[in-house]
Amino acid sequence: MTVKTTNNLGVLLRSYEALHNWRALAMLAGSFVLGGLAISGGAAAGMSSGSAAVSMLMGLLGAIIIIVGMNASGLMLVDQAYDQPIRGFAPAFLGGVQAALYVIGLLILLGLGFGVILLAAYLLSLFGRIPGIGGFLGFLLGGPLVVVVALAYAVLLLAGPLMIAAVWHGEGFIASLSRAVGIVTQRPLEVFMHFLVLGLLVFPAVAFIFAVVFVGSMFVGGFFAAGSFGGMGMGGFGGMGGMGGFGGFGGMRGMEGVALGGAGMGGAGLSIGLVWFLAWSVVSLIYVLGMIFVYRAVSEGVESAGSEQIGQKLAQFKQKLDDYKPRPAPVAPPPPPPAAPPAQPPAPSPEPTSPAQVADTTHCPACGAAVQPDDVFCGSCGHRLK
After folding, report:
1. Do 306 and 177 contact (CB within 8 A), yes or no?
2. Domain coordinates of the chain in residue numbers?
3. pTM, two decimal places
4. What's the mean per-residue pLDDT of the chain?
């Protein structure tokens, strides 16, 4: 084990610092309490109405509340792990909703992948039913299939928490999955050692908190149970008096004690259940911060080449889909506007005729009488024209 790995394992001791983050603790505890109320109330409503749908619906609502609260507190703990200002409740809640959607989708995707592996193993196991060579094929396939399923389950267990932590660190949907799987496949022993040490560190807190809550629940629950059955005992004692009037009165008081004791026991049970949810929130907060430290330690130097390859494959697939899409007929471009006729040079203006030319052709310059072109003298005034 290298010095760097030892230091990273030592960082896990800081997991208990999560209890100093009061915002994350309040967010997680509040979500556990609200989720616990929804689950317990749904169970009580389902038992009273005899409808399992109400219990399932309220249980689903409670689970969603807890998941959103855990993701919101995880974002706050990421800020604490990197010594950043811890975000407020509203930004953490909104980020927790988005992270919860990513986490649910990724967990479903991981589950489907493991289901595909199980289906493939089942189909291969059918070769063992072939008459004659079934035993030989079973011998060849049995052991390798066990190894494949075991490795797939190990990847599922180790990659799940890393994938959730990657979502809290701001990775995308596909990037979180590929990065978590890449870390587990490249550093399986280091990841296992970190989670093993984290479990050993959190286990004392789990044992202590659950032990004290269990002892308190036993005592308090016993007190309420004793009060419930005490009313019935007093009623029985009154009925044994032999005097009809007083005995009947004692029986009525006993029934009231049973009813009140039963109601008190039910309310106490609900309250005790909420205390157990609070205990779970404290333990979960410690584990979540440790999970963030594990991700930070094992993800150093691991390139997310898988996410880039997946992104390239998706881009190529999208390009192929675009190529196969029917394209609209090309629209003919509008005809260009008619070109303006070329500018013609201005026509040369006729040269002005001199008065002599006008006189030679039409009129006498002296009197203005009309003359012929071949006249030498004007016929009116005798002016010499030529």
Report:
1. no
2. 14-131+138-241+248-303
3. 0.67
4. 78
